[in-house]
Amino acid sequence: MALLKILEYPDPRLRTRAAAVPEVDDRIRRLVADLLETMYAAPGVGLAATQVDVHLRVIVMDVSEDRSQPMALINPEIIGREDVGSGEEGCLSVPGVTETVTRARRIRVRALDPRGKPLEFDADGLLAVCIQHEMDHLEGKLFVDYLSELKRQRIRKKLVKSARRDGERAPAI
Ligand code: GNR
Ligand code: NI
What's the CA-to-centroid distance between 78 and ligand 2, angstroms? Predict the structure, then answer.
C-alpha cells in the first residue's frame, strides 16, 4: 500500500477526464487500496483517482461514522436522479474551503466492484452527495465550478498563495 499525493486546485491535471477501466485486475485493486489508504489518512470521506493524478474511472468512499465501511466503485454511472437539495461540501483538492452545493438527493448507481462484479443500488444522504462529488472529479469537474466566478477566483488566489508559501516544488515528507 502507498500514500499518494493529492493534487490541489488550480492544478490543471484535476481537469483531466478519466478513461474507463477496461478490466478490473490486480493493478486496479492496488489502486483502490492506495486510494483508500490516502483517503483515510487525509482524512476524507471520498477520493477519486483523478485527485492522485491517475486518470481512470475509480472512486472510493467511506461515509460511516466509525470509518469501517470502505466502498470502491469502478466505471460508476448514475442511472437515476430524484429530488434536489443543497449541502455544504469540501474537497481534499480545495483545502480549507467549504461552500453550499446543490445536487440530486437520491441517485441510482451502476458500477463494478473491486472484484469486477456489477453492482446497482440506490444512494441518499452523504453517500449520494459523495458519489456525485467523486464522479465530477472523473469528468475534471470540481465543486468550486458550481460557485460564482468571483468566489472561484478568490479561492484560486488563496490556494495559489498558500502553495507558494509551502514551496510548491518541495516534496512532502
Ligand atoms: O472529505 C470530503 N468531504 C466531503 C464533504 C461534503 C461533500 C463532499 C465531500 S468529498 C471530500 C473528499 C474529496 O475531496 N473527495 O473528492
Ligand atoms: Ni473532492
Answer: 18
